Amino acid sequence: MSTTQRSAFDLSGRLAVVTGARRGIGLAMAEALAAAGADIVAVSANLEESGSLVEQRVTALGRSYRTLRVDFADRAAVAALAARLGNLDRPVDILVNNAGTIARAPAAEHSDSDWDHVLAVNLGSQFTLTREVGRGMLERGYGKIMFTASLLSFQGGVNVPGYTAAKSGLAGLTRALANEWAGRGVNVNAIVPGYVATDNTQALRDDPDRYQAILDRIPAGRWATPEDFGGIAVFLASSAADYVHGALIPVDGGWLGR
User: Which CATH number fits domain 3-251: 3.30.870.10, 3.30.1330.10, 3.40.50.720, 3.40.640.10?
Assistant: First the structure.
């Protein structure tokens, strides 16, 4: 690899905010961004004030680190988070909207409270935070924003109507923001995970028949691990992706191509 190619992925001096960074995909993306040179602000509802796994991994790479906690179901709290980010001693260069939740129940039994909670965390808070942080990026003419979408941004799923609606909404939001912001120096894209071995899929993995049915359909022959998402996060955050706008990029082991 040439020096020019390496430099395209160098995030030295950049500040990345990663939501849902306590574990799973968010943790892996925060670590990968730090390994590429970015300093990290990790945000999660239950992230330890100090000594968290994400803090350990980021600081071990020699990057600066900060913890912020917020309830993503609370719109006012998310707006306050955006204000805190706007008052940091340096601007946010990279925003990774990864925080999310899921509620599993057949649609006929899916409560209004579950619906409202999932939509608030997975879609409403994402728009509020992105609007506020994105405004500063637009003023500077630079920024990289990515959402964690889902296969259910394209498919209906089973027993997760709120989650499907929210993730489908993220697909539209990605495109809508890209249409407005691409010409102003701000890239907005989404990563589309396939089936990943995280807490969100524990119920599926605990069902032997469902687990095997899913595995049998994945051309790569395995479920994803959180580490499978580090590379795509670095790419979308880097100058290598300067001409990538409004893309929903599957990282699914070939599932959507099946």
Answer: 3.40.50.720
